[in-house]
Amino acid sequence: MIVERTIDPDQVGFDPHRLARIDRHFARYVTDGRLAGWQIVVTRGGEVAHASCHGMRDVEAGAAVEPDTLWRIYSMTKPVTSVAAMMLWEEGRFQLTDPISRWLPEFADVRVYDKGSLLKPYTVPAVEPIRVWHLLTHTAGLTYGFLQNSVVDGLYRAAGHDLYPPAGIDLAAACETWARLPLLFQPGTGWGYGVATDVLGRLVEVVSGQSLDDFFADRILGPLGLTDTRWWVDEADVHRLAALYVPSPADGRAVRHDGLGALGRTPPSLLSGGGGLVSSAADYHRFTQLLLRGGELDGVRLLGPRTVRFMTRNHLPGGNDLASFDPAGFAETTFEGVGFGLGFAVVQDPVPSRVPSSVGEYYWGGAASTAFWIDPQEDVTALLFTQLLPSSTHPLRPQLRQLVYSALVD
After folding, report:
1. 359 with 348: CB under 8 angstroms?
2. Are 384 and 239 contacting, i.e. CB atoms less than 8 angstroms apart?
3. Per-residue DSSP letters for 343-409?
4. Rounded CA gap, 96 and 226, in Å?
5. In this structure, are residues 286 and 276 in contact, taking their beta carbons and an 8 Å threshold?
6. 21 in helix, strand or coil?
7. Considering Cα of 61, then 67, then 70, then 73, what sign does the dihedral take?
8. What's the pLDDT score for residue 327?
9. Residue 266, Cα to own-chain centre: how many angstroms?
10. Alpha-carbon distance 372 to 291, whole Å?
11. DSSP states of 237-287 as a string?
12. What band does 163 get if pLDDT is binned at 50, 70 and 90?
């Protein structure tokens, strides 16, 4: 399955000449070697107004980006896991205020980092349990080892949890480890990017009685016809998988990284609800359309419309933006004027970040520079796929917003 343009842009309020700027602009990244290749999809009113590919999915093999190219979407897995959890919530299986220790008892007596060094950290008891909504909003105090920004993420690395977990460990065992490590802050008092959505995936497993891959297949991927979305790429489709690249320290050109890239070609021992999926533009396009349409697509309803609206409101305490929490380390978003819902960043005010968008727009991205956003106010979605780690290397996301919104002229 591929995604192609389905309507003339001017029929849905886009100036086609202005939309053409998108391809010209991002082609420069390929010409000068900063990106190997990319794929972009822009829709309005459920119709594809712009769909383009450029460059190579595998430079060394001489293979071009094709409409059916497979991409490691990393943290764009998080919204899928959040939808899975909220499907169970709609069934009354838990409340958002429930402590997660009800299902994951290893998190019953978590402690919080207070002071000290990596060798001698001093911790205090958590005064508030980690609740389900803390996982969905990244306010649980969990972190990532690869951030390298605090004593706590240093403790994660010391336990073997860096960019990837130790070989052979599964999700249940990882949660046991994370529960023994201190939190960055008292639950609900801060915002920190980390393994919260992986823990949420484990919660989905325990509550549903299914492994995360089976739940995704039975309840989300199968019903929506997302045939390209999977946890790893087998030999039959490996030719479609884009190679993974990192910027050269010498000149910034994209350099192949097979060490990490190879992990997308083998079955994972840990099903990461926070970053484990591979997908295609066509599949993720259908996922965004499901959300834009209030949880229903082509007669398949996964969520109620009021649930989707609830998920895409700002749930941060006090209605604050992320900048108010002074978050440490990297995340797949700017912080100024941006809140966080149940699985998505949510725009409160586009002015502080100096990037055009609409109030109520929600979005996220992945570590290899993939991104999506959904704008209910303008009835617009946009998708960007490439394979460059880390996503902070180039300002691809704000530039795509500039080009898309400046092409919207009705």
Report:
1. yes
2. no
3. SSEEES-STTTT----TT-EEEE-TTS-EEEEETTTTEEEEEE--BS-TTSS-HHHHHHHHHHHTB-
4. 28
5. no
6. helix
7. positive
8. 73
9. 21
10. 12
11. TGGGBPPPEEE-TTT--EEE-HHHHGGGGS--SS--TTT--EEEHHHHHHH
12. confident
Are 291 and 304 a contacting pair, CB within 8 Å? no
Overall pTM > 0.85: yes
255-286 as b/e, with b when 16 or more CB fall inside 10 Å? bebeebbeebeeebebbbbbbbbbbbbbbbbb
The alpha-carbon radius of gyration of the chain (Å, integer) is 20
Q: How far apart are CA 1 and CA 67, in angstroms?
A: 9
Can you read off the two tokens belonging to residue 327? 């978050």
- Amino acid letter, residue 335: F
- Share in percent of the chain as helix, strand, coil (round to 5): 35, 20, 45
Do the beta carbons of residue 340 and residue 134 sit within 8 Å? no
H-run or E-run covering 25: helix 16-31
* pLDDT recorded at residue 329: 73
Q: Any idea which residue has 């929600």 for tokens?
A: 362
- What are the two backbone dihedrals, phi and then psi, of residue 242, each rounded to the nearest 5 degrees? -65, 145
What pLDDT is attached to residue 325?
87
| Tokens encoding 376 | 């209910």
* Percentage above 70 pLDDT, the chain: 100
d(CA 45, CA 292): 9
| Torsion angle of the four alpha carbons 219, 220, 226, 228, in this order, in degrees rounded to the nearest 10 | -90
Instruction: Give the model confidence (pLDDT) of 192-214 as tens digits.
Output: 999 999 999 999 999 999 999 99
* Residue range 351-365, pLDDT digits in tens: 998 999 999 999 999
Strand partners, 111: 125
Over residues 138-143, mean pLDDT: 97
Ramachandran angles phi, psi of 190, nearest 5° = -150, 180
Give the mean model confidence (pLDDT) for residues 164-184.
95
